[in-house]
């Protein structure tokens, strides 16, 4: 309802601001993903640790939902 609409309207202003300020910096450095940013900001070891955390979180959070919804579709 209205709360979703308000979120969309209000978030447009900061998103435009962030795109104008930060996007050129990231594109200039060749950063396309969060792990790319982590590697540039810290080091390769930290990037690997963050990659592993992302993979584990995806496996724990999203994979069961996807498998369950697929099972419901076949059931």
From TrEMBL:
Tell me which Pfam families the record gives. SSF
Q: Where are the transmembrane segments?
A: 6-27, 48-74
Quote the cellular component terms of the Gene Ontology held in the record. plasma membrane
Q: What molecular function terms (GO) are annotated for this protein?
A: D-glucose:sodium symporter activity
Its localization reads: Membrane
What is the taxonomic lineage of the source species?
A: Bacteria, Pseudomonadati, Bacteroidota, Bacteroidia, Bacteroidales
Q: Which UniProt keywords apply?
A: Membrane, Transmembrane, Transmembrane helix
Entry's family note: Belongs to the sodium:solute symporter (SSF) (TC 2.A.21) family.
| Signal peptide positions on this chain | none
Record-given protein name: Sodium:solute symporter
Q: Classify the protein's membrane topology as the record does.
A: Multi-pass membrane protein
What PROSITE patterns has UniProt attached to this entry? NA_SOLUT_SYMP_3
- The organism named in the record is Alistipes onderdonkii
């Amino acid at each position: 309802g209205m709360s979703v609409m308000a979120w969309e309207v209000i978030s447009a202003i900061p998103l435009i601001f962030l795109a104008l300020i930060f996007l050129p910096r990231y594109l200039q450095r060749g950063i396309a993903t969060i792990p790319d940013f982590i590697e540039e900001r810290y080091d390769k070891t930290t990037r690997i640790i963050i990659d592993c955390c992302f993979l584990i979180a995806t496996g724990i959070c999203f994979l069961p939902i996807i498998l369950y919804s697929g099972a419901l579709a076949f059931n």
